[in-house]
């Protein structure tokens, strides 16, 4: 079965695929070709979209809806770097422990404190908040690049999990900065 060729007569077509990467016929790695992902997603959606199977049996309609939902979930997971990283770690049997493991390296925590102080000092200064946002965005990009190396080259998924948790901290902090900027505009 290939991307875009989905057999709705199988009892559970999703079981024919090992994971989201297999579903879209992409290599199981952090760095992916977004164009290929998007093309595979659109091809599958064209095949399985429930509107295309409106005249089918109830089982075909149900399977069509299940596959369309699965394709949406798979696409959303793989198109975003951080969820894709966590998914790769999950496939390797690692638990991210997002609710319980908030430990971060000391240097990262110190940087967080500096950024928070800078955000508080710049509370009504749009230009300062924009500069801080740019700085944190750059740090997030660098950290995401590290995750790519940790997963794809070093196969050090434990270290990648630590970096991914740090990425989540940065994403949340960027949301706070964005909220403050929006309040000033």
Question: Can you characterise this structure?
Answer:
With 185 residues, the protein is mainly α. The protein folds into two domains: 67 residues, DnaJ domain (Helix Hairpins); 79 residues, Monooxygenase (Up-down Bundle), CATH 1.20.1280. α2 runs antiparallel to α3, α4 packs parallel to α6 and α4 packs antiparallel against α7. It is globular, with a radius of gyration of 21 Å. The N terminus is likely disordered.
Q: Segments where pLDDT lies below 50 for 5+ residues?
A: 1-5
Profile the largest sheet: none
What is the annotated CATH architecture of the largest domain?
Answer: Up-down Bundle
- Strand and helix order: HHHHHHH
**How many individual domains?**
2
Q: What is the CATH topology classification name of the largest domain?
A: Monooxygenase
- Helix share of residues? 55-70%
CATH class of the largest domain: Mainly Alpha
What is the overall shape?
Answer: globular
| Rg, nearest Å | 21 Å
Distance between the termini: 51 Å
Care to count the β-strands? 0
Assess the beta-strand content as a share of residues.
Answer: under 5%
Mean pLDDT equals 89
Please tally the helical runs, counting DSSP H or I stretches of 4 or more residues. 7
Secondary-structure-based class equals mainly alpha
């Amino acid at each position: 079965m290939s991307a875009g060729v989905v057999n709705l007569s199988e009892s559970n077509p999703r079981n024919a695929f090992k994971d989201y990467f297999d579903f879209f016929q992409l290599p199981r790695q952090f760095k992916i070709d977004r164009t290929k992902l998007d093309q595979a997603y659109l091809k599958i959606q064209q095949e399985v979209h429930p509107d295309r199977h409106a005249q089918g049996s109830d089982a075909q309609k149900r399977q069509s809806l299940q596959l369309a939902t699965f394709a949406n979930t798979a696409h959303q997971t793989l198109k975003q770097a951080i969820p894709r990283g966590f998914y790769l770690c999950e496939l390797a049997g690692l638990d991210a422990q997002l609710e319980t493991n908030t430990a971060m390296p000391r240097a990262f925590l110190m940087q967080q404190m500096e950024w928070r102080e800078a955000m508080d000092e710049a509370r009504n200064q749009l230009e300062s908040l924009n500069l801080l946002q740019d700085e944190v965005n750059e740090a997030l990009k660098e950290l995401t690049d590290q995750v790519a190396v940790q997963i794809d080259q070093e196969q050090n998924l434990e270290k990648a999990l630590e970096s991914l948790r740090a990425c989540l901290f940065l994403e949340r902090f960027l949301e706070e900065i964005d909220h403050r900027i929006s309040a000033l505009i």
